């Protein structure tokens, strides 16, 4: 029997990396011992390798599915279907999952310059970039409308936090509250009818 863990591990790893980065940011930004260091750049430089490790995990997971495809001797285009056709993993999904990871790495690199120009030092914005990436990684192989919905919903809530992350101005706070209020109605209507 084929072990599903290596095939899904590229989607699971960003969750763990996000939690570790959040713990690192909270501990070091409130640490009197380290004299409250600027943590946005530290968390950013730790978030970049987590994206690169996820790309390496994707590259390592694709040959596993190719081996499964050869071992079973199937002539199907779909290498493996997960439970009840929830996620579909094949070569095209692995190839398409590289692009969101590259854009996330570019976004984190662009954040460093923005943080320097604006003197913005909130590590939460870097931590809030990784869950939408994870949601995108789940959305690409989604083979069901429920899987697509479960991938999109956490992504939108992180975007609300990113929109309201600049705390010293009233406009981002207003935008975040509007997005969260207006963003709650469509899922509620679509779920409850």
Automatic annotation (TrEMBL):
PANTHER family the UniProt entry points to: NADH DEHYDROGENASE
Membrane topology: Multi-pass membrane protein
Transmembrane feature ranges: 12-31, 43-70
Subcellular location: Membrane
Listed name of the protein: NADH dehydrogenase subunit 2
One GO term describing the cellular component: membrane
Residues of the NADH:quinone oxidoreductase/Mrp antiporter transmembrane domain: 142-192
Organism encoding this protein: Pinus strobus
Cytoplasm among keywords: no
Keywords, sorted A to Z: Membrane, Mitochondrion, NAD, Translocase, Transmembrane, Transmembrane helix, Transport
């Amino acid at each position: 029997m084929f072990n599903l863990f290596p095939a899904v591990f590229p989607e699971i790893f960003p969750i763990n990396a996000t939690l570790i980065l959040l713990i690192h940011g909270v501990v070091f930004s409130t640490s009197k011992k380290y004299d409250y260091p600027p943590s946005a750049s530290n968390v950013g430089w730790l978030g970049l390798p987590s994206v690169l490790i996820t790309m390496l995990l994707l590259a390592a997971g694709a040959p596993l599915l190719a081996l499964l495809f050869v071992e079973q001797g199937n002539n199907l285009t779909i290498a493996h279907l997960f439970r009840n056709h929830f996620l579909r993993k094949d070569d095209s999904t692995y190839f398409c999952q590289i692009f969101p990871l590259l854009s996330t790495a570019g976004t984190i690199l662009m954040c460093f310059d923005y943080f320097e120009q604006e003197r913005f030092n909130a590590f939460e914005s870097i931590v809030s970039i990784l869950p939408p990436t994870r949601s995108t990684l789940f959305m690409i192989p989604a083979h069901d409308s429920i899987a697509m919905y479960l991938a999109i919903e956490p992504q939108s809530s992180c975007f609300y936090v990113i929109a309201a992350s600049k705390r010293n101005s009233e406009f981002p706070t207003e935008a975040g509250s509007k997005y969260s209020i207006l963003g709650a109605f469509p899922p509620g209507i679509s779920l409850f009818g």
